[in-house]
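User: Modeling request: complex.
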Amino acid sequence: MKDELVRCGLVKYGGCLLLLGLALNVYGQQESVPEPVDEPVHESVHESVHESGHESGQSGHESGHESGQTTPSIKPNVIRWGTASEHGNFGYDVFRGWSEDGPFAPVNPDVIAGAGTTDIPQRYEFRDDSIEPDTEYWYYIESISLSGERKRISPIYASEPKPLGQVAE
Amino acid sequence: MLSCTGNPQQELNFKIAVVDDGIYRIDFAALGISVPSLASSSLTLTERGQPVALAMDDGGNGLFEPGESFTFLGKHLQGEHSWFNSWSPENIYVLRAGGSDSRSIPESGLTPPRSVEEEGLAGKTLTQHFEQEEFRVALAESADEQTENWYWKRLTHLDKQPFQLQLPAGVEPIAIRVALAGLSMDRAATKSGEPHHRVELLLNGTGIASKDWNGQAAVEISADEAAVAKVLTDAPTDAPTDALMHAKGQNAEDQTIRLELRVPKRYSPGEPDAVIDVVLLNWIEIDSRPTTFSDIVTYSGPDGKRLYLADKLSRAPGWIKQIHHRGLRSDSRQTDYLMIAHGSLLEAIEPLAEFHRQQGLSVSVVDVADIYNEFNDGIVSPFAIRDFIKYASENRAAPAVRYVLLVGDASWDVRSEAGRQRNLLPSMQVQAYDELAASDNGFVSIHGDDWRPDLAIGRIPAANAAELTAVVQKLLAYAKAPAGQWRQHMALVSDMNSDFQTISSQLAAGLVEQGFKVETIYPDEAADSTKQDQSDLVNAINEGQSLVHFLGHGGRFVWRTGPLDYHNSSDLFSLPDLERLDNQGRLPLVLSMTCSTGPFDHPQAGSIAEAFLMLPQGGAAGVLAASWRVPASQTFSALLLQELTQPGQSVGEAILKAKQKETRRALVESYNFLGDPALVLRISDNHPKP
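Assistant: Request completed. Predicted assembly structure:
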């Protein structure tokens, strides 16, 4: 006989039922990343959460503009991910390195607010403007719980090098 | 006694809805009655059964007539432990007119607007309470206490703008109290001795108080008269006028006083000593001296004299409705089945009631508003529903009530208009791990002081009559259809977890021994995609299964192939798959033995369990699903299957018996049955009718 909490993801953080379709989606490299598996649900539910007036987190998007646009003519790397549910979640940090093996360091100027505790799907986005031209970067996402625990919740993905001269977003 | 001049014998009863504190004025016309007048002395007003003073303006002739009005002091509906009530924002005052047992009413009245000096209030303290309920959370540290679950704001250093409160014009604070609670509990801070929480209170940009504390405790930040005065009144004597204005507000045009709460930033990505800090704002109270009010009034009630500002005068109630007592307390008819419905759904549920009557059950369909009127003084509360069920179970003729069906959707948000509209029939709430979860179990846990159910219960979470009609027609077709061979087929579904698959296989073996044809559907870990698994499941349901049992990982909208795993796991069955179902006439009972697939009380979002049931033609005949996180339990599943396969036993009574044998409270309370509890699976041609 085995009793197990039927849950997934963020287990160390007091339990999380499900964390779905974490999709690190770098512009220009979509073929190499998974699509959000619950895209239709995300769209409809996401709007309704904001209409409810009971927002439980800034799940919209977070911009890296504060970190300084060193190369304004380069398209930023945009990292997107989503969750199906969160439990005791404070937020996320985005880590960046120059190789798959690291070293990695947080690239977001401040934590990206999570949704706390919810079983409503959430979507997040971080725009990394502080990139150099023709440079490949590697990213992963780390979540931080309300008790301060950290957990890497994504694989390590590479961005496609961006040339100079593109129009900034 | 001539109490009602149009009809002397008739007693009229009205519900008056009050949301905010204030003086309410009720015009004769607002009662919407056709009698020419009412005897003023026959009018009584009560709140929760207690008399409330009213001031009659009837011109002195003793008759309440068109063009006349009365006033009373209305108060918002408080919770047992909180400023607001969790179940309804509307307090109900009951007005009775006529009848033979009118009681005397304490006299009271409004004074005309007067100045502070005229009222003798100069130097007295006025306390104003500011609170809103926008954020619901169940604090783990207070799980066993009756504490606040609704908060105004969640505060962190990430807030784009710190929380601000502009005080109403004319209010100059002399003392300020802010009630907060902790939410985060940073373990690193615990080790280093840093406080979990730090909040600063600012007045017009100047810090006047701060508080450090730990855990999820409720605390107050207080700023006394000296601290407040230092900001507001201790301007240098030679200060220019604009400096004083700056102290009181932003500029000469904006003289409002601004209160602000800040959570200092103690977190930076990558910093080893970063501290996570999330706190909850509950309420703010401001003490002030009413020196500038020129239009205050007093209202003298039985408990003394009260001060009111002019803007709280002559409020209009939210609505007034006449009450028609149905005599629920005096109804002693034997009843097998109680169907409790929102008024808008009474007609649509009647065909299901009539079907069960034809099957030999005595069915009573009750408007939930009548329950509120007779069991809770007109105020919305799920506990009134439970009280009625208990009363009916104990006082109606034997044999006692067996089934309860709740007809209507629920919503835990009664503050927003959209949430209220969806809350046709409220659910009870239980603390499940770190959240509150919908639970209908409490409605039928009526005997003894344990948490186990005593009656079979189900819910059809329809939002309107059209939805309900569609489901009722579907269920009637199911019940009336020939008992085909497909009803001996069952599908046991799991995710990629080998333990869950083992449990499912053992459960399947037991069913096979009973003679059922059982198909097991387990996602293939080695497969490149789950499309085949998804198709297998859809096809199995379309072919006809009397029962589908899923054991695995899941969420509000989905059964999954596994836990969080960004490489391997994905959706096994989700809302889009429901649209692929073509199983009209072959509806399964779905046992969704996973987390949170049936939280039916969200104010906007649905769930896969609701979608299964509410699908107009296909889908499911009923769904057992959890409203929050639950442990997987072979024991509970085995109990359910054992009872559900008893010939002729209804689904509701099978679930009831399984829950009565289950030892874990979380399972009993978190799993709710969506559907008709008197439904019989008819898994064999020889099964008797209920």
